[in-house]
Design a protein that fits this description.
Distance between the termini: 24 Å
Number of strands: 14
Shape: globular
Oligomer: single chain
Number of helices: 16
Structural class: alpha/beta
Strand content: 15-25%
């Protein structure tokens, strides 16, 4: 099979970029031919705000380039990751013009929310979903705290909604969890088009031993990731085990302050994938205290691969993929006291801990390994191709 994978890179690298690379590697390893189409938000620095706004609505460049690649490359399916802002939904129309199905992986909630997070002012916010209207986003200036930028994004989304860009031009959506699938259905994405496939790892890092005794946080240091609550928990409770924070972001200064004030907190800054892997193999637990609806945190799949149990907020996808008492423990999101309670409880589970590590690794092998994940991805591709062939015969 020949697959065109498309992705718009962010200026600051993130999990979506890694998923794009991992799935490309996974397909290539299986012997499939992969054509890539990428653009980068670095282009924005050289563009006017008007030009960017118009391209967000419809990128003629992406439409023309993708249509040519599909035609000349004998592409069977176009698989989109991030299309915002420079690729735009014009890619769906380009693929359909050449009679090729489109598969869209949904990494965040941008189809439902201008901020893409369903999170505002430290709280879950679903006003635009429940009201079926972009007015709350405009009122709160949800994209970059700008009325103009929010207006452009919402206008583009409403125009493409009315044109059927998602309901008619996309053959299959990939949701990263059942929770996300439910939210997409609430956002009026046709349920029959949605399939669930979590993120994966192209390379298995192998088991660790968990003998380091510390709790590890690895990821972007931002408010919705629960960094404030995490730091407060350790600053107020010197009897907690050692905490290592790996990552950087808007709340990097908060992590630096916690490391300076609390004897059991270390901040290692931005770490490479290999460095995070080494930390995971020795950690006692991974902690993910998010207060927003994560898409599917790749760090959880990485932890499971190394046999590392997870302490997670009981919210959204995390509540689904971290099974209480089986692959980890859950606490109330945003509640420092409950986080502290669960960490103290978990750290003393000596008799249950070896079995939990075994189950965690088993969970990875059954649900998140590259082999299982690629099987599921190819199954979705086959569905999309078959459906498109039926459509052609009806025409």
């Amino acid at each position: 099979m020949t697959v065109l994978i498309a992705h718009n890179f962010y200026q600051q690298a993130g999990g979506e970029d890694r998923v794009f690379a991992d799935e490309r590697e996974m397909l290539t390893a299986r012997g499939h031919r992969v054509v890539t189409y990428t653009r980068s938000n670095d282009e924005i620095r050289m563009r006017s705000s008007v030009g960017i706004g118009l391209e967000t609505l419809w990128s003629q460049r992406s439409y023309s380039e993708v249509r040519r690649l599909v035609r000349e490359g004998g592409v069977d399916v176009v698989h989109c990751h991030n299309t915002f802002p420079l690729i735009s939904p014009s890619i769906y129309w380009a693929a359909c013009s050449e009679g090729v199905p489109v598969v869209q992986t949904v990494h965040n909630y941008r189809l439902l929310c201008a901020a893409a997070t369903l999170h505002r002012d430290g709280q879950i916010c679903e006003e635009c979903v429940s009201q079926r209207s972009p007015l709350p986003a405009l009122r709160h200036r949800c994209y970059r705290d700008s009325l103009g930028a929010t207006g452009v994004l919402c206008t583009a989304r409403e125009i493409h909604r009315s044109l059927g860009s998602w309901s008619e031009k996309v053959t299959r959506f990939i949701a990263l969890s059942e929770f996300m699938r439910g939210k997409l259905i609430e956002g009026e994405i046709p349920p029959e088009k949605i399939r669930v496939k979590p993120n994966t790892l192209a390379v298995d890092p192998g088991l660790g031993d968990g003998t380091g005794g510390y709790v590890l946080f690895a990821g972007r240091l931002s408010r919705e990731k629960g960094i404030g609550e995490l730091c407060d928990a350790w600053l107020g409770n010197p009897d907690l085990p050692e905490l290592i924070i790996a990552g950087d972001g808007p709340m990097g200064s908060r992590a630096r302050e916690a490391a300076a004030r609390a004897g059991k907190v270390s901040w290692v800054g931005q770490a490479t994938e290999e460095e995070v892997g080494r930390l995971m193999k020795s950690a006692r637990y991974l902690i993910t205290p998010s207060t927003w609806y994560e898409g599917f945190p790749k760090v959880v799949a990485e932890a499971y691969a190394t046999g590392l149990p997870v302490l997670a907020s009981r919210i959204g996808t995390l509540a689904e993929i971290v099974r209480e008492g089986v692959t980890g423990w859950q606490f109330q999101p945003g509640c420092v006291a409950d986080m502290v309670r669960v960490v103290k409880m978990a750290i003393h589970q000596d008799s249950l801990y070896p079995e939990m590590r075994r189950r965690v690794r088993q969970e990875y092998e059954q649900l998140y390994s590259a082999e299982k994940n690629c099987d599921r991805l190819l199954e979705i591709y086959d569905e999309a191709v078959s459906e498109k062939q039926v459509e052609k015969r009806r025409m």
